[in-house]
Design goal:
443 residues, alpha+beta, Arc Repressor Mutant, subunit A, extended, RNA_pol_sigma_54_core-bd, nucleotidyltransferase activity, transcription, transferase, DNA-binding
Length: 443
């Protein structure tokens, strides 16, 4: 048997998508929120002397920082209502200690305990651990803790949620009479709604326990939280929808949006040097600027196009006071705009649309649909959740509806759901179970 090897040359033409670094960064720019995009461009400007980044400001457009009030007749400046965070919880407590207590050993122990407060105001060290580290007695540390706990905010220095609520109740003259003793002796029974046990032990009524429960829910479980960061307390919307005489109008917002500018004077001055290396460097930096500008423009145009489709398909949301949503999938928008579904997904996450009644993330307008039993048009999950919420709000609070009863009531409205689905939607709406919604009111 002879073995022969035949060699030949063939030329084939194939098409492949090469994920270059520039293409990867262009894709990332689509999913960046406005603050993330600004940070990205600022970093690029540090590397590219031809790229200048600025924030667009329009003095006539203050809508990005205000919202129409619920009454619809006035505009509020929400920025002016944001709490100041110049002083931290730690600094606030230290200042009170120095102002109220003499320089004694007990004050030193109090200052020591402040070092172990977390951002919510809770003490993260036990007195036994503090004894080992300070060589102080248990009584001395207990006295120091008491000095800490009488400071503001109420609840500071608590070692657990129960103690935090008790400290707040102790300083409130308007608290129901039985609140402190119930929190001290029957905290778990109150939380688990085992109220008959409390009723029997304290010889009281379920109505009085209901009053205590309502009061406790108004207390703050995190007394130090108001000193936290507010960096995400407000957002800058990417799109704005307004109702005009000719219909709904959508446009991109300019306020706070990053803008890239080419440094033409610097480019001409450096090009005049005649150095080949400098010219090659400038050519590369100019190309980088061009694709960055193209990416920013494409991002803005794509978000606007998606917003236009949202307004067209969800027009009743902007016109009807109940703000109903119809079923809409990202795939449908991608098909209409002739773009990939992943592009739509990247563009709607972290992007916001401002209306005359609030600000909404773009992905809010997307959702699957469920068919109705009457054969009418399908309903979105958001509309069904709203129906569940309406049923619960209209129930008799002394006899709250079970999940199965909600299923039956919705079926009468041509909405077919399983009990498990109702329980799922109820959890997503932060609605407690029927046993925890039961209220005891005076008749």
């Amino acid at each position: 048997m002879r073995f022969e090897q035949h060699l030949s040359q063939q030329q084939k033409q194939t098409q492949k998508l090469a994920m270059t670094q520039q293409l990867q960064q262009s894709i990332k720019m689509l999913q960046f929120s406005t603050p993330e995009l600004l940070s990205f461009l600022e970093n690029k400007s540090l590397e590219n002397p031809l790229l200048e980044v600025s924030t667009q400001i329009d003095d006539d457009d203050s809508s990005a920082y205000s919202r129409v009030s619920s009454s619809g007749d006035s505009t509020q400046d929400w920025l002016s209502q944001l709490p100041s965070t110049e002083e931290s919880l730690f600094e606030y407590v230290i200042e009170q200690i120095h102002l109220n207590y003499r320089d004694t050993y007990l004050r030193q122990l109090t200052l020591y305990l402040v070092e172990f407060l977390d951002v919510n105001g809770y003490l993260t060290i036990t007195l036994e651990q503090a004894m080992e580290q300070t060589q102080a007695s248990y009584i001395e540390l207990l006295d120091a803790l008491r000095l800490l706990q009488v400071l503001d905010p109420a609840g500071i220095g608590a070692r657990n949620l129960q103690e935090c609520l008790m400290l707040q109740t102790e300083r409130d003259d308007q608290a129901p009479v039985l609140t402190y003793i119930i929190l001290e002796e029957f905290f778990e029974e109150l939380a688990d709604r085992k109220w008959p046990v409390i009723e029997k032990a304290l010889d009281t009524t379920l109505i009085d326990i209901q009053e205590v429960f309502d009061y406790v829910q108004r207390l703050s479980p995190f007394p130090g939280a108001r000193f936290g960061s507010i960096s995400d307390a407000y957002i800058i919307p990417d799109l704005m929808v307004r109702q005009t005489e000719s219909g709904l109008s959508i446009q991109s917002t300019k306020q706070g949006m990053p803008k890239v500018t080419f440094q033409e004077n610097y480019f001409k001055r450096m090009s005049a040097t005649g150095d080949p290396e400098v010219k090659n460097y400038l050519a590369d930096r100019k190309k980088e600027f061009e694709w960055i500008q193209s990416g920013v423009d494409y991002r803005g145009d794509t978000i606007l196009r998606i917003g236009e489709v949202i307004v067209k398909k969800q027009h009743q949301f902007f016109l009807d006071t109940t703000h109903p949503l119809v079923p809409m999938l990202m795939k449908d928008v991608a098909t209409e705009l002739d773009i990939h579904e992943s592009t739509v997904s990247r563009c709607v996450n972290g992007k916001y649309l401002q209306t005359e009644f609030g600000v909404y993330e773009l992905k809010t307008f997307f959702g699957v649909s469920l068919p109705s039993t009457s054969g009418d048009s399908a309903m979105s999950t958001e509309m069904i959740k709203r129906k569940v919420k309406e049923v619960v709000e209209q129930e008799d609070k002394s006899k709250p509806l079970s999940d199965q009863k909600i299923v039956e009531l919705l079926k009468g409205q041509d909405i077919t759901l399983s009990r498990r689905t109702v329980a799922k939607y109820r959890d997503e709406l932060n609605i407690p179970s029927s046993s925890k919604r039961k209220r005891y009111e005076k008749k």
